[in-house]
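User: I've been trying to design a sequence by hand for this structure and keep getting stuck. Would you show me what you'd pick, starting by listing the structure so we're on the same page?

Assistant: Good idea, let's start from the same input. This is the structure you sent:
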């Protein structure tokens, strides 16, 4: 299994959590991956063929995650790669929030689930992981999902023969 994850392994993030438990390639603006740049998008299209797990965890703008999902999915289909794409969302999308961020996450979730329905045809699995916040090491996030637990969940899902189109993790105390 070869994992490509958007995010910075130097910060408490999903990329950080994955990097703690397995070998990954991470891509963030600090490592030269500016996903608003057309040349970087072209590079991503070429590079993603070397991986069979893509963790699409970074929101850059209201279309970026969906664009990266489509590129990975279509590139893998064209190259007969039976991989797994994890799209990271937020429980904020389950509210009435009408910000560009929340709307884009709702669209990403629906698109990811629709693509999951096509797994039998495409060979590409998609899972939408809806998070109730990520513990980034600050007092206000201490009750949110731990990055290692998120990473362990992703790794567990990759080992399943089943399709798991949607998972919600919420680490808040009750």
């Amino acid at each position: 299994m070869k994992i490509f994850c958007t995010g910075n392994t130097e910060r408490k993030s999903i990329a950080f959590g994955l990097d703690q438990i397995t070998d990954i390639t991470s891509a963030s603006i600090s490592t030269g991956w500016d996903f608003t740049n057309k040349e970087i998008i072209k590079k991503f299209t070429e590079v993603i063929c070397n991986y069979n797990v893509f963790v699409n965890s970074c929101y850059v703008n209201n279309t970026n995650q969906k664009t990266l999902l489509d590129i990975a999915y279509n590139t893998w289909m064209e190259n007969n790669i039976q991989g797994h794409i994890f799209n990271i969302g937020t429980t904020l999308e389950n509210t009435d929030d009408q910000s560009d961020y929340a709307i884009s996450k709702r669209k990403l979730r629906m698109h990811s689930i629709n693509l999951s329905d096509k797994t039998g045809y495409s060979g590409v699995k998609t899972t939408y992981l809806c998070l109730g916040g990520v513990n980034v090491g600050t007092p206000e996030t201490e009750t949110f999902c731990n990055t290692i637990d998120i990473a362990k969940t992703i790794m567990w899902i990759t080992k399943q023969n089943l399709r798991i189109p949607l998972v919600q993790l919420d680490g808040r105390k009750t």
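That's my pick for every position. To get oriented when you compare it with your attempt: The longest strand covers residues 84-90. The mean pLDDT is 93.
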